[in-house]
Amino acid sequence: MANAIDRMQAEALIQTQILNTIFQDAPKSSVVMQLGRRLPNMTSKQTKIPVLDMLPLAYWVNGDTGYKQTSAQAWDGVYLTAGELAVIVPIPEAVVADASFDIIGQVTPRVNEAIGMMVDQAVIFGVNRPVEWQNDLVTAARQAGNNVSGGITYDSLLGADGLFSKVEQAGYTVDGVVASMHSRGALRGIKDDVNRPIFVSDMQGATRYALDGAPLYFPENGSFDTSVVQMVAGNWNQLVWSIRQDITTKILTEGVIQDPTTKDIVYNLAQQDMVALRVVLRMGWALPNPATRLNPDRTNVPFAYIEAATPVTTYAATFTVQNNGGTAVEGARVNVNGSVLKTNASGQAVFNLRNGTYPYTVKAAGYRTMTGEVTVNGAAAPVTVKFPATE
Fold first, then answer.
1. Whole-model pTM?
2. 5 near 89, Cβ under 8 Å?
3. How far apart are CA 205 and CA 188, in angstroms?
4. What is the per-residue pLDDT across 329-374, written as a single tens digit (0 to 9) for each?
5. What count of Cα atoms within 13 Å lies in the side-chain half-sphere of residue 232?
6. Which residues of 245-271 are buried (b: 16+ CB within 10 A; e: fewer)?
């Protein structure tokens, strides 16, 4: 009996080749994964990162017998939670057999591109972000007041309260800028006070273009949402990401594929003589935002953005924090899915949020931590948090 290598016998080899290609190339397709700092792979669905939350202080001692004062240091926990990104690409076996080129090989780079696009959209803009993930960079920057209006001009970029200055006020230096392809024309026309262009090419830098020494990236994977922002700048080294497990691929030859909405069977691989490439990625990210001398209460963030020509609509979520007697609690820390503000003398903190549901925690010295969710749906969302009796 004659022997031959069929698809089943060679399947392991095909999987390994695709796995290596996608695993190596997917981060190259994502500007977030390129610029952010990768941590070791996660060992569970959720990984806790200890983050400096309060800095110690020092005091001058008055006189020879003055009393030395005490201080403290505290840490908080920031979580990386793995979200799952997956795709199935069905292909009729007859098409594979009749094709004059490697269809799987042609599909693989497009899968890489799709992975990069989805990661960038979720992390930067919050598009289709997993519910387990913290606020996107644009939302976090908006709560810190790091949004700049006025379009792309010298002042909005490098002025005293411009894009770069917003990041520097948080105690960080801009190490990367991500901009839309549409903004390149506007950048080329901007000059400084002595008529020198500020958008210059740099043949030795990380990218071809630089802005005030920081490399500029123009994503070509379709992820940049010009309806939300025109440009995002920040210290990307403060953004961390990790993979729960390596990207897994499998060529399916049996089974059915159902419509996610109707649950109707769309394809029956065995009955219709089809194969399907399945790719699964589980990853998490976080912006730990530790306390610094310039940002001791962590209410600022190392990112800023220039608004779109028509600023995206946000709605005020006003938190009013009181004790059990109804008295306002000043200085309570309100954390809305990673964005932090402290309450004022009236016990209020105002967040400007896009539509969606956001988990929150409220902490204050001497009180039990309160948790809940706030939903923003096309209108202002008032939230009253009343602490129980003091501990």
1. 0.84
2. no
3. 18
4. 999 999 999 999 999 999 999 999 999 999 999 999 889 999 999 9
5. 31
6. eebebbebeeeebeeeeeeeeebebee
Amino acid at 89: V
The answer to whether 354 and 312 are in contact (CB under 8 A) is yes
Amino acid at 98: D
Query: At 65, is the secondary structure helix, strand, or coil?
Result: coil
> Minimal CA–CA distance to 288: which of 365, 331, 235?
235
CA 119 to mean position of chain CA atoms? 8
With b for 16 or more beta-carbon neighbours within 10 A and e for fewer, the 298-308 pattern comes to bbbbbbbbbbb
Residue 134 contacts residue 286 (beta carbons within 8 Å):
yes
- List the chain domain ranges: 7-25+38-43+81-243+282-292, 313-386
- Closest to 272 (Cα-Cα) out of 254, 245, 258, 286: 254
Give 310-334 pLDDT, tens digit per residue: 889 999 999 999 998 899 999 999 9
Report whether 175 contacts 31 (CB < 8 A): no
pLDDT bin (cut points 50, 70, 90) of residue 43 is confident
Q: What is the dihedral of CA 143, 145, 147, 153, to 10 degrees?
A: -170
Report which DSSP code applies to 238. Answer: G
Half-sphere exposure of 351 (CA within 13 A, CB side): 33
Cα separation, 361 vs 349, whole angstroms:
13
C-alpha to C-alpha distance for 22 and 100, rounded to whole angstroms: 23
Pairing of the two strands 303-307 and 147-148: parallel
Residue type for position 309: A
Helices (H), the chain: 7-29, 31-35, 93-98, 103-120, 137-143, 154-158, 163-169, 183-188
Using CA atoms of 132, 141, 77, 356 in order, give the dihedral in degrees to the nearest 10: -30
At 201, the amino acid letter reads S
CA 91 distance to own-chain centroid: 33
Provide DSSP, 120-159: HIIIII-TT--TTS---HHHHHHHTT-EE-S-S-HHHHHS
- Nearest to residue 49, comparing CAs of 234, 240, 236? 240
- The CATH number of the structural domain formed by 313-386 is 2.60.40.10
Distance CA 89, CA 276 (A): 5
